[in-house]
């Protein structure tokens, strides 16, 4: 459903040019949750912005459901790390969630109902009339997630979505993501620098190298479900996988007996 | 303790300051420190100011000045806000016009009165034109500044949902810039009042607070009239400014609430 072939991107030109992506090939199946993990500044966000059509890569192609991404595709939503800047402070929570639905053939009542339904899914059904800045950071990021869910995207991109909240909230939001992913058969690409998170949330973990980013590992996560913050994280396969991903992120050679086999 | 708590109230504190100044001025007159013939007693001036409140001629002049002020301010917003958006969204146009704007901006609008007198036969048109000229700058500059301050991530968020550039301008840049525009309009309103009265005073005309000042200038107690009128001009400016501040706080609660938290 999402096919990325030989994606390269270079910022600038001449001697000061910065090569951010170096020939990324990646295929994500429908309904899959893929975590992309890599060291800070490796070009993860460049990759995400290319998939979202927010940035035109200098080389290669992104194909979503058979059509090449030139501009922002219709059936895509992004959850950014910085919820306080991504939510509109002049609008109520409900209006924030329903705003993108103006792109769809929905009347006011339908948009309102869809927004309320999405807010229910993230446990914020009573916060619709509030303003984003009246909510805690974790709640604001829930609103961002609700806004993406209401849009019913075929592909949901999440750019370090839990990077700005405390550890407790982070775990709650990880579980929320796992809970809502099944609702609309969304494909999710989640970018993170947190190795544990990538293994805990993902069906698959794709590891990027330092800039220019290339794929150095692609591991399937077969952990017994449903996932749980305590039991999953103490499961031997989890411990093994996180070590494996950790080695790949640090640029070490992977161990032969990998849990992905 | 009670006294300390009373002084915590800012308006009350301000009123006490004004009352104190009044007493000092009154005392300097009564004790003969400054002769009431040279400078009128504070109580005489205040009494005249109260009388002016029921003086039909004066009130008509006030209405006339406020009418020019309101019309000038309205035209300013209609011209300067769209101009700011055009310049703010077309960087090339801004680069081309910036030097001209920077050249025109420091020219005091009152220095343009002789030119305006030559250009306009109608005093009212001239007054409005000068008000618009002077009041445009803060609105235009604040609009440009506000547009530069629009969060790129907020724009990108809407773009990621497939909205085009015009929708992003309308739904993100406009609301995000609005508080800056409002501040510009508040600054412009003070300038508009000053320019309106100054033009009336320097170029004359049939009515307005400035014209009233010229007319009472010939009377024997001109000084009392002039100071009383100045007090009313100050009150008008203060009231309009407070109303603008109040409206800004109400309408852009999201803006003040956010900046106060950060």
Automatic annotation (TrEMBL), chain A:
Keywords: ATP-binding, Nucleotide-binding, Transport. SMART domains: AAA. GO terms for molecular function: ATP binding; ATP hydrolysis activity. InterPro entries: AAA+_ATPase, ABC_transporter-like_ATP-bd, ABC_transporter-like_CS, ABC_transporter_ATP-bind, P-loop_NTPase. Residues 2-235 form the ABC transporter domain. Pfam families: ABC_tran. The keyword Nuclease does not apply. It comes from the Bacteria. CDD domains: ABC_NrtD_SsuB_transporters. The keyword Zinc-finger does not apply. This is NitT/TauT family transport system ATP-binding protein. The lineage of its organism: Bacteria, Bacillati, Actinomycetota, Actinomycetes, Streptosporangiales.
TrEMBL record, chain B:
InterPro entries: MetI-like, MetI-like_sf. It is a multi-pass membrane protein. Belongs to the binding-protein-dependent transport system permease family. GO terms for biological process: transmembrane transport. Residues 62-244 form the ABC transmembrane type-1 domain. This is NitT/TauT family transport system permease protein. CDD domains: TM_PBP2 (cd06261). The chain crosses the membrane at residues 66-91, 103-120, 126-147, 180-203, 223-246. Signal peptide: none annotated. It is found in: Cell membrane. GO terms for cellular component: plasma membrane. Keywords: Cell membrane, Membrane, Transmembrane, Transmembrane helix, Transport.
